[in-house]
Design brief:
This protein is α/β, with parallel strands linked by helices and 349 residues long. The chain has ten helices and 13 strands.
Length: 349
Amino acid sequence: MSLPAHFRDIISGSRRGLVGPSARAVLAALEPAYGWVVRRKNRRFDRDHAAVVRVAAPVISVGNLTVGGTGKTPLVCWLAKWLKMQGQLVTLISRGYGSRGGPNDEALELAARLPGVPHLQNADRVAAARLALEQNPRQVLLLDDAFQHRRIARDLDIVLLDALEPFGYCHLLPRGLLREPVEGLARAHVVGLSRSDAVSESRREEIRRQVKSLSPAAIWIELNHQPMGLLDCENSQVDLSFIRGKRVAAFCGIGNPAGFQHTLTQCGVEVAGMREFPDHSSYGPVELCELETWVSKQRGIAAVLCTRKDLVKIPRQELGGLPLLAVDVELAFLTGQEGFEQRLREAVS
């Protein structure tokens, strides 16, 4: 079990015995200090409008309230494609977490999904925005993972909540997964519930009511991440029928492994074994050797599956003598698409 899995077990309360309650007590003692820092930063931006920089282009932000994956990448791809269909030029801007001097895994995945769309990675998003506009002043800037990066003004703030754990176990870091208090949702113009099909309709309505109480004016959308097929390391497509009904081994190094597990269920496979690695895992020789040994111990499996974010870092057709394939996921709207598109048109007009 990876460190993130241990951490989730602790903060969710599923880890019992002596370790779980003791660890939660320590993390709870640290939570107020983190909350003080976050609230202080937010008060600064709320009061000092001069601290917020507006650039001469429409800016759309996609972000999270929690750490861990909420499925931003499929939405960022959908937005970039939608904007291009409206005749808009687009540049993606992200912090570049885990880039180690080059494009990180998310940048590599986005490049494969959106060929020809520029992507600037810079912790200083204002500097990146200015550079993009020097290259072309007539375009839309699409910020990835920027809800807490308040230094750059935006025309549309989109926040994604994961239906499997929308409010980060109701605690700030490090006791929970919240990056900031849930009251921060009041800044959002659009709140989207990702992986909506993973929970019941009554649960979706319960979450919607909670969001409505925090952000009454925000547009509400519900999204599904639909498996569309499989891809190998050369971006060749394989039909889902290749694995449907068969046993597979699977692994991932993403912020929310439960989301990938839900995707595997949608694919109609039997998961013989699942390995979780830390988010942004580099998959060096040690990890790949470990994976190959693990795969060789699985019995009766037809393929090894991972996410596109994982596969861009593993240029191999096979793992342990079996096909290594990524599940290709695209966004589908369950509700709210018409109102969302209208709000997008207003933001970029």
